Amino acid sequence: MSEGNGNSAYGRKAFKRSRSHFTDRITADGRDGRPVEAGRYRLIASRACPWASRALVSRRLLGLEDALSLGVVDPVQDDRSWRFTLDPDGRDPVLGIRYLSEAYDARQPEYPGGVSVPAIVDVPSGKLVTNDYQQLTLDLATEWKALHRQGAPDLYPAGLRDEIDEVMADIYEDVNNGVYRAGFATGQKEYEAACAGVFHRLELLGQRLADRRHLVGDSITEADIRLFTTLVRFDAVYHGHFKCNRWKLTEHPVLWAYARDLYQTPGFGDTVDFDHIKRHYYQVHTGINPTGIVPLGPDLAGWLTPHHRERLGGRPFGDGTPPGPVREDEEIPAQGRP
Ligand SMILES: N[C@@H](CCC(=O)N[C@@H](CS)C(=O)NCC(=O)O)C(=O)O
């Protein structure tokens, strides 16, 4: 089970993330019986969830919106987990289901692994295909190429994969998952180790990014997406709710400018809903925040201020171009934006 409602992490001192359960891959050659096909699959995501948000960014950058439709769940789960209460009649308009668990049940009745996002569902059968958040975005970048928009960036270039994988492994361990280990620790020592690890790795990443615009090569890659999805949540939820409070992102000049640069790049900030992020963490993890009170801050205005990272050079989209405007039905409501 993943972190669930936060309470499942208690009863042991260190938080452990379980492995994703369904790992079928949607590929160009359809070797798992799931060929890439426009309109056949639906991505189900929570805008609150950092793992799902990777897929939201990739889908936008690659221009897969028409090929891979999107269902967004309510940021606050109930005891049956993720639900489609943001949609008319509380049903996903394409799948016709009220709970994401229905797609999991259609795949394997009462499977014990827990219901998580991101999830890709096969529309004709209504069955979950994959909730393998680590592989999912790599496949969007490499296997879905035939359906990418013209000018889509190469987010996982063949010649840079070793370096990207290495950077992402450290980011995953110490940053993406490190904040969860700090937040869900129930022992002082475990919390301190995780929290120290978060900031140690962030300092190293800050040094790496001091004189280069992106983490690997000179363009945006999957590594930047994975760091961004944690950084954009940092001050809103990880600093307070998860007690990763040695410093705020806004106090680290390099990482704050790096995060703003990406936030202001089409495909990144236009997927972020700070309202969903805050309500999910503060209302769902009742073990950590029993009152469920959602703080008013932080002030988000800074996200739109100049970052001056162009000075470092780099070509954010390589030989490609930025994505066009967000579809009207996927725009972030005003309360979720700076
Ligand atoms: N699928 C992965 C990672 C994805 C994940 O943890 N997603 C969270 C949201 S951020 C989730 O859906 N958790 C289940 C829940 O909260 O009910 C896992 O099982 O650990």
UniProtKB/TrEMBL annotation:
Residues 154-284 form the GST C-terminal domain. GO terms for cellular component: cytoplasm. The record marks 238, 281 as: Lowers pKa of active site Cys. Residues 311-338 are annotated as: Disordered. One of its GO terms (molecular function) is glutathione transferase activity. Gene3D superfamilies: 1.20.1050.10, Glutaredoxin. It comes from the Bacteria. The active site is at residues 49, 180. Glutathione binds at residue 82. This is Glutathione-dependent reductase. It comes from Streptomyces avermitilis.
